[in-house]
Amino acid sequence: MKLSYPVHDIDNRLLLPAGTELSGDVLEDLISSNHTTPSQTLPLLEHGSVRKDIVKFISQPPYQLIFPEKQDISKLLKQMEKVQFVLPFLRSLDYFKQYDFTTYNHLLNVFALSTLLAGDLIPDYEERIRESAAGPAHDFGKITVPLKILKKRTPLTRAERDILDHHTLAGYVLLSYYKKDPYSLTARVARDHHERNDGSGYPRGINLNDRMVEIVAVSDVYDALVSLRPYRPISYDKRSALEEIVGLAEQNKVSWDVVKALIAHSRTDKPHYQEVEIPSEKRGAPPPGNVYGIIAEETDADASGTSE
Length: 308
Ligand SMILES: [Fe+2]
Ligand SMILES: [Fe+2]
Description:
This protein is mainly α and 308 residues long. The chain contains 15 helices and 6 strands. The longest helix has 21 residues, at 101-121.
């Protein structure tokens, strides 16, 4: 695992230069160099308007179908209250809320959805509830990606796409550093949530190797599809989004159990996830104007404009 770009901390101090091989020794040295950040943690739900915003976001379509009952939302919030974070992560949320609201909204939606699905799929989840921290922190590394790229409406160039994809390793480095632990699930999910079971993901092309990684991977894709994105003015409707995700499971890219749990919660009768039958017929259609995955020709202006 080699860094293609430098990683700076949240105050823009260089942590590791481009070309660094992320060995255990390098990470241990990096962590022991962290004298500035106290390891004190604070509850994420009590930070700023996070609690109010989560309730607002999951009360809107299509999430209101997944979270229809007030008492279920209260129970979920009770679980989420246990999730704590170091201050730099909370500061990064403030940054996204102010400068890139789409990412802020996404992090909180993935927090809620991954917490819900983990409750179904991880048997001793009550004891492991803190693992839900992996949901909101999965894209922490986007703090290192220029806003110009995060908010670009037209297709990214190859160079821009590479910088965006680097949010995985950057997030892993930042969370290892701030949590002072290179093995935490939260840091590993930041690194691995774009991996796929058939090895077609990034940054390493490895299989998904943990239930929580699988849960965040599916929650991440679902929220990306059903939300408005800079690169896609119209979001997927619920049916088309679920069909897209079923397609990923059919191609062995993501976990069937997680997909079935998501579908179970999207149905009004809320069956147990193991009882969900998947219809073979697909009737949804992706929305028009989606430029995701299209790589633009690089112009001189692009080449000089991505390093701000
Ligand atoms: Fe991501
Ligand atoms: Fe994400």
